[in-house]
Amino acid sequence: MKITDIKNSKLFDFAADIRNSRPFNLVISLLFDNADIILFFIIIFWKLLSYEKNISSSFVPMSVRLAIAASILILISFSLILKKKSRISFLYTVDIILSLILIADLMYYRYFKDITTVAAIKNAKLLKGVSASVTSVASVKDLWYLVDILILVPLKRKYKKAEFGIVPMRRRLVSFIVILAVGVGINAKTFYRVSKEQPTLLTAMSNRIYLTTMIGNVNFHIVDSYNYISTSLKNSKKLSTDEENKVKTFLQNNNNTTGETNFKGQAEGKNLIVIQVEALQGFVINQKINGQEITPNLNRWVNKCMYFDNYYYQVAGGNTSDAELMSNNSLYPAQSGAAYYTYSGNKYDSIASELKDKNYYTAALHGNTEGFWNRNVMYKAQDFDDFFGEHSFDASEQIGLGISDKSFLNQSLEKMKTFKQPYYSFLVTLTSHYPYDAVDKYGSFDVGQYKGTLLGNYLQAIHYTDAQLGEFLDKMEKEGMMKNSIVALYGDHFAIPKDNESQLFSFENESKNDDYTWFKYQKVPLLIHFPEDKYAGVNHKYTCQMDLYPTLANLYNLPKNYMFGKDMLNGDSGKVVFRNGSFIDGKNLYVSWTNTYYDLATGNKISETDALKKEKEDYTKELEYCDELQNHNLIKTFDQQKAN
Ligand code: GP9
Ligand code: MN
Q: pTM of the prediction?
């Protein structure tokens, strides 16, 4: 390139002067010719590092910085095949795409504490309905990721006008191969280290955020895309008989774990009413603010019920729909995305399908549009006779996403009175939905110093929902409906996202803010009410949403075929497995994203023993079996095998 030939570019006069000076400065020339690549590297490195800092509170170690650098080199390598002007445009476009991905990932993280995946993006239409939530997880700070894109517009134009010598194809190809090899080489080392530490992390991606903190955002998306494509290809093939049998054997063992028969058939013939409450988090139960109970009605009902106070939610990418899936089927959420979408074509052995075999009428009720979370499809797949969605109600009283809990519960009760008995009603409430900002509609619950904060708004929202639930349960009792019914009520998932944990911890006077403390609050209440308040009392056993169906199956004397959870009323297992690979076994807590064990009773960190390592591997296997069952629609296969 002749510097004197640079036209229309005052901006580069300085560079031209230097380059024309004697002796000719080769380094400067090289820097100028590759300014686009250098700038791209610096900008993207900064963006990826800043993303890492957002998702991980700890210092980003050198090994991760290297992995990030390697992923950028891989991106750069592809630009090297192109001619100079196309290369500039390519790098600029990649910058735009990557910045948008990072912003989307950050928003997704704030809400789901997860990273977007190809499967989740495929289900993106689900996010339409939660636009209120999407705007509330957006942050002005994120706009930093776009600033360079604007600044670079005039610079890019001028730089493109500079004349550069033509680099022959062969030389470009060599640069591409060399840089790609360096990037892949460094990555190979990182991936090897990760796979040594946690053998299934890269393939099962059970713990996506932890993986991202180890390999960086770009590498994560490369691995995720690779896994998505290879899983799709793999699932198009039939599972071998051997693999099928492993799943079958696991289920047979899991569904016959104890010889105990406590409470067996106690609910047979009775109506079943399951109420899934939006964002009802455990800490509000029996808790006061400024001397007033937050949930006075539920507190009253807790005393009349069998109350499980160590009941964990286990939702993943499907959020509310995952809570529904687990509670009704005892199947784990999908590895990524929402099972309600990915597996809607599958056969299910749900509570509704089994109760239907016993001549029950089955109905699902929810005050939102029927298509939300693919419910219209999934309720059919789970054998509900009817789904009463927004269109089946008087939808005039709206709060947030749909019909107010007050109106929804009142109308649902009237509908239930007309149901043919015995029936199974599955109700999903809605008003206490994040970001809890319809405060004026919740009435005047005084949250004092918390007024206007996320926590304060939540307390007002859940106080409102509590009043509606109280009215609903009291009416059922007054009208004699409780005499012949079992009611199970639980929260679907957390209310206070990880991002706002400090508000929760200070409200609860927690001095620590470690993962153990975080887990302490990831419980939702479960209340099971029996006629005449029979069996009322608190049960401290470690239980979870996966356990509801096995427990109800025992109470209603239903067959247990394809359940991954445990019967809460029999046996002494304290197993709670989370989709990200974390688990509780009744004595220990394993936090997968830091690969750390805690003593459940004391909160002290403990080292991994052979037994704990085995447990970790067994639970990873368990999640994989469930994935295989869903990926290959095995309930259908197993049912057919039984019929033959
Ligand atoms: C939507 C409601 C909320 O109908 O169930 O879903 P979420 O956003 O909590 O998953
Ligand atoms: Mn929800």
A: 0.79
